[in-house]
């Protein structure tokens, strides 16, 4: 059986298509060693048997979340046999974010097609997309569907039945992120004869997903925006920002006035930050965190909230709660005083 992977960002309509292709005959479990859901189902297209894999939602193959790490490992064949073909599922109304992901996938050389969902919504919002022109620009098959209505599904099954016959790009997209963004913009200018009207939420989400400086912080910001609640807020932790590889310079992009509490746990020097665990959290000033830069950037961006500590260090647990409270409060005061005067 051929293995076909469905790849796309969250809310792209990928799982709706998976259900339409497999008839809800899915095996659901977790990938080994992680809590990320694994969904596979068997399907028949023009008499050929396929295993269809609904890969976790991903914005990029430069993985910064457990879901994206799983996608990369599946494509690399680390968690099972790698898919022999890929269908990239993209919301036609937010095509830019999907083309950035598609560019990375095309560079892997796997037979790939692009499936556009929400084409009815694109039209309702006044957008016009020239799909044949997009197909020529990318050099791969492109098909529009409306998954929840079943429109285009029969045609999609016929396309998926013969991945070995799919066309391939004549030129690969650029690898460097800024060049890749320019590649995407040039394609959009060529194929979007009328850009769709946008919603405030999707605009905000795109500014986050497509921002080149936010790094791993983008996932938390995306969830906060997607929650749609006026009081939704990030709770930042200096220790976890460092552990996740988030550049502290990304804090300059935040609205400090929207943050209410920040954990200012310090951390020791480590050759690989990902090896640290909660037990390595230490008092501010006892490690190597650049608190002067961090606190000044937050102040300049309007932060007027509270600083706190989370103490999971077993050496601290050996002391009384009162001792930890007094020491922690004095360490916070000293750190803030040294940074802000």
Low-pLDDT sequence parts: 208-214
CATH class of the largest domain: Alpha Beta
Q: What coarse outline follows from CA principal-axis ratios?
A: elongated
How would a crystallographer describe the biggest sheet?
A: 7 strands, mixed
CATH architectural category of the largest domain: 3-Layer(aba) Sandwich
Distance between the termini: 67 Å
Order of helices and strands: EHEEEHEHEHEHEHHEHHEHEHEHH
Percent of residues in helices comes to 25-40%
Number of strands: 12
What's the CATH superfamily of the largest domain, by name? P-loop containing nucleotide triphosphate hydrolases
- The number of distinct helices, counting runs of at least 4 residues, comes to 13
- Strand arrangement, major sheet: 2-3-4-1-5-6-8
CATH third-level topology of the largest domain: Rossmann fold
Structural class label:
alpha/beta
- In percent, how much strand structure appears in the residues? 15-25%
Radius of gyration from the alpha-carbon trace, in angstroms: 23 Å
Number of self-contained structural domains: 2
Mind explaining what this structure looks like?
This protein has 2 domains: 2-194, Rossmann fold, CATH 3.40.50; 233-340, Alpha-Beta Barrel (TIM Barrel), CATH 3.20.20. Helix 5 runs antiparallel to helix 7, helix 8 packs antiparallel against helix 9 and helix 11 (291-300) crosses helix 13. It is an alpha/beta fold and 341 residues long. Strand 5, helix 3 (95-106) and strand 6 (112-117) form a beta-alpha-beta unit. The chain has helices at 14-22, 66-75, 95-106, 119-124, 131-138, 153-160, 177-191, 200-209, 217-227, 238-243, 291-300, 314-317, 321-340; strands at 2-8, 26-30, 37-45, 48-54, 85-91, 112-117, 128-129, 142-144, 192-194, 236-237, 261-263, 306-308. The strands form 3 sheets. A 7-stranded mixed beta sheet has the order 2-3-4-1-5-6-8, sandwiched between helices.
């Amino acid at each position: 059986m051929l293995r076909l992977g469905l790849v796309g960002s969250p809310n792209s309509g990928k799982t709706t298509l998976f259900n339409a292709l497999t008839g809800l005959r899915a095996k659901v479990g977790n990938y080994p060693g992680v809590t990320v859901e694994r969904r596979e189902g068997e399907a028949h297209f023009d008499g050929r048997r396929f295993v269809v894999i609904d890969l976790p939602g991903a914005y990029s193959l430069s993985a910064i979340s457990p879901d994206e790490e799983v996608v990369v490992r599946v494509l690399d064949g680390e968690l099972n046999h790698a898919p022999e073909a890929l269908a990239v599922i993209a919301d036609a109304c937010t095509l830019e974010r999907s083309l950035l992901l598609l560019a990375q996938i095309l560079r892997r050389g796997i037979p790939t097609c692009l499936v556009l969902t929400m084409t009815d919504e694109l039209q309702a919002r006044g957008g016009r997309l020239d799909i044949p022109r997009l197909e020529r620009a990318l050099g791969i098959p492109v098909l529009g569907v409306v998954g929840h209505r079943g429109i285009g599904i029969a045609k999609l099954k016929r396309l998926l039945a013969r991945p070995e016959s799919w066309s391939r790009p004549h030129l690969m997209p650029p690898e460097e992120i800024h060049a890749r963004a320019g590649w995407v913009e040039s394609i959009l200018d060529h194929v979007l004869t009328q850009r769709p009207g946008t919603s405030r939420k999707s605009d905000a989400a795109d500014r986050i997903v497509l921002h080149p400086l936010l790094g791993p912080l983008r996932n938390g910001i995306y969830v906060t925006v997607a929650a749609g609640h006026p009081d939704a807020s990030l709770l930042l932790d200096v220790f976890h920002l460092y552990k996740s590889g988030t550049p502290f310079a990304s804090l300059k992009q935040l609205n400090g006035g929207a943050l209410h509490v920040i954990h200012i746990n310090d951390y020791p020097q480590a050759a690989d930050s990902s090896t640290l665990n909660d037990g390595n959290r230490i008092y501010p000033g006892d490690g190597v965190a650049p608190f002067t830069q961090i606190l000044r950037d937050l102040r300049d961006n309007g932060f007027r909230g509270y600083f706190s500590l989370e103490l999971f260090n077993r050496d601290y647990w050996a002391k009384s709660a009162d001792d930890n409270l007094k020491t922690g409060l004095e360490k916070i005061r000293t750190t803030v005083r040294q940074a802000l005067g």
